[in-house]
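sry for the spam today, last one i promise. struct tokens for design, 292 residues
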């Protein structure tokens, strides 16, 4: 048995790794500890003609109850951070919350918005994550990715095709391995105060005591998704173990061993009700993947 095959977990339940605490079984799951191991895993999957799914913290994601075929790779062990002047270079598996804390410790401003976002650097870049007036495209200088042909390619800021909750990596099949953040010198106390302010606002408004994916829907033009859902009387509505939060209508929380299918079905229910009431089509911000 090869070293790669030894690293593979077969028929692994995804739920324990996911922010939603929901999701079916992956045929294979691996957590690489180096770029070489990541490359070897991708080569192994290609040789065996298996689909590959690469994730960081499995946030902003709904995995259906039927699970995922092929190989699931979690990047959580690739999390090193380096400093070069006013720039931080972070591996894709680094928690974006941790990177914000590192920036504060080094007196660098620009990542205060990320202080409470549940996810990885790779996920934040992939989705162009943002909150509280900041988002990834405001500070990402360049990104290095492992491409489908297993070559390493570095993308400059202007090549990243950033848009609302979008980046070029949603289209080109590249696996993000590292991102460079261009920050600015700031006062540590002021940076911490802004992070504390954002986190206080988050705790006040968001249902942080239950597993969730954060905001489920993209912001519809001219509206707020949460208000449309609240005004439709959907707070407290549940499918299986997943419920529209009574604290923030834009969130869906796992209150009783909910499944990925419960999340998806509740999303469709909310979309239908909001469209019926307001003729507004809500588009999920979360990605829904896997077999039913």
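last one done:
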């Amino acid at each position: 048995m090869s070293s790669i095959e030894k690293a593979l977990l077969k028929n692994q339940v995804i739920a324990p790794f996911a922010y939603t605490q929901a999701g079916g079984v992956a045929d294979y799951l691996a957590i690489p500890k180096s770029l070489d191991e990541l490359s070897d895993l991708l080569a192994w999957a290609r040789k065996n003609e298996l689909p590959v799914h690469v994730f960081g913290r499995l946030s902003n994601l709904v995995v259906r109850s039927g699970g995922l075929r092929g190989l699931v790779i979690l990047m959580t062990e690739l999390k090193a951070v380096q400093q070069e002047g006013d720039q931080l270079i972070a591996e894709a598996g680094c928690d974006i919350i941790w990177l914000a804390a590192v920036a504060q410790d080094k007196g660098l401003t620009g990542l205060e918005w990320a202080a409470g976002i549940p996810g990885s650097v790779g996920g934040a870049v992939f989705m162009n994550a943002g909150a509280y007036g900041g988002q990834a495209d405001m500070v990402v200088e360049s990104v290095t990715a492992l491409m489908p042909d297993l070559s390493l390619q570095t993308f400059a800021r202007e090549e990243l095709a950033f848009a609302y909750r979008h980046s070029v990596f949603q289209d080109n099949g590249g696996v993000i391995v590292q991102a460079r953040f261009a920050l600015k010198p700031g006062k540590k106390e002021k940076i911490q105060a802004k992070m504390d302010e954002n986190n206080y606002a988050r705790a006040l408004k968001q249902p942080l005591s239950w597993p969730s994916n954060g905001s489920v829907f993209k912001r519809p033009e001219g509206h707020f998704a949460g208000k449309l859902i609240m005004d439709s009387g959907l707070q407290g509505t549940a499918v299986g173990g997943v419920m529209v939060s009574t604290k923030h209508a834009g969130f869906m929380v796992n209150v009783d061993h909910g499944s990925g299918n419960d999340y998806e079905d509740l999303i469709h229910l909310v979309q239908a009700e909001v469209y019926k009431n307001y003729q507004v089509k809500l588009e999920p911000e979360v990605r829904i993947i896997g077999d039913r």
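The longest strand covers residues 175-182. ok im logging off now
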